Amino acid sequence: MIDLYYWTTPNGHKITLFLEETGLDYRIHPVNIGKGEQFQPEFLKISPNNRIPAIVDQAPADGGAPIPIFESGAILLYLAEKSGQLIPSDPRGRNEVLQWLFWQVGGLGPMAGQNHHFSQYAPEKLPYAIERYVKETSRLYAVMDKRLADREFLAGDYSIADIASYPWVVPYQNQGQRLEDYPNLKRWFDAIAARPATQRAYARAQEINPPKPMGEAEKKVLFGQDASTVKR
């Protein structure tokens, strides 16, 4: 059994996508980040960076004590290795998947996240910041589009690299992008959206946190953190 500490963000969706795709037993523990539940002491024992997602594997392969894991990329890699699914076993295929997984974690996620912040949530619209991150998002979309010109998925077969990237493309309109400008990416996106596991994962999100505008109190919790948040 996997205990998943989750909220309905792109990084949270990564893990439900994986779990629904592989059929591993799991239970969701919602962590409402807009209400500050990520700062609860019990959660911080699992995720010291006060971010979702995090998991606790109650039945690790070594038969020992439960294993807590935070950071979405680390969770995907752990679960792929545990289940033997969605990552190749041969070194060449594995390294290809890992490169694209880390590309998402280090590039697509952070850049699209800043895009969202400055274009959707910042109290002051800063044209330079918006243009900077919209342009960088477009560059990253183009990288994916070029990569997908001669293959179905980012690393050949469907893998954790695709699962990591897909949720960050879902809000493409809020990122100032048009999928029609990236035909290979659009084909990839539509194929993943049509997968039954994807539809189940996003249905869980709708049940847990139906979409609604972010209130000012939530913005203060999410965007007002500094070193004192960690030290308190």
Provide a compact summary of the structure.
By secondary structure, the protein is α+β, with helices and mostly antiparallel strands.
Can you walk through the features of this model?
The protein has 232 residues and is an alpha+beta fold. The protein folds into 2 domains: 2-85 and 198-231, Glutaredoxin, CATH 3.40.30; 91-194, Glutathione S-transferase Yfyf (Class Pi), Chain A, domain 2, CATH 1.20.1050.10. It is built from 10 helices and 4 strands. It has helices at 10-22, 41-46, 72-83, 91-121, 127-147, 160-169, 183-193, 196-208, 216-223, 227-231; strands spanning 2-6, 26-30, 54-57, 67-70. It has a 4-stranded mixed sheet, covered by helices on one side. It comes from Chitiniphilus shinanonensis. InterPro entries: Glutathione-S-Trfase_C-like (IPR010987), Glutathione-S-Trfase_C_sf (IPR036282), Glutathione_S-Trfase (IPR040079), Glutathione_S-Trfase_N (IPR004045), GST_C (IPR004046), Thioredoxin-like_sf (IPR036249). Residues 90-214 form the GST C-terminal domain.
